[in-house]
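Sharing a chain and its predicted structure for anyone who wants a worked example. Both blocks are below, sequence first, tokens second.
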Amino acid sequence: MLMILYGDLNGEMGLDGTVGSFVALGQLLRRGSGDMDLATADDPYPYVGSLSRITVRQSNRKIVMRVVDGKDFEVCGNMDSLRQLARNIENFAASAYGKDHLHVDYHPDHWYLEEESVSLVVRVDPALE
């Protein structure tokens, strides 16, 4: 199961999941469209809340990740960018150990993220099984 936690709906998000759930997310990103329900947290500390669904859509731009309607996380981008994000998340999840985490943040000249994307901190959490 995947969970997206937030402190601020326009700021950094925490994407937690099992290795298997990150493989499923990679498949969703490679399809370029669809959605997946997310687990929600009773106590999201140090965050303040959690989102309920992730939706993937294609566009002709690099990826924009954002919160829609205060409850859904949308990933919208061209297929090359979506495939690269899928590879990065899957590769990280397959090799993560302990408190390892992956930052998915825009920086100038980022080749698959648009500047208006929120940031993600990706963490493997076996407790979500």
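Comments welcome. The longest strand covers residues 53-58.
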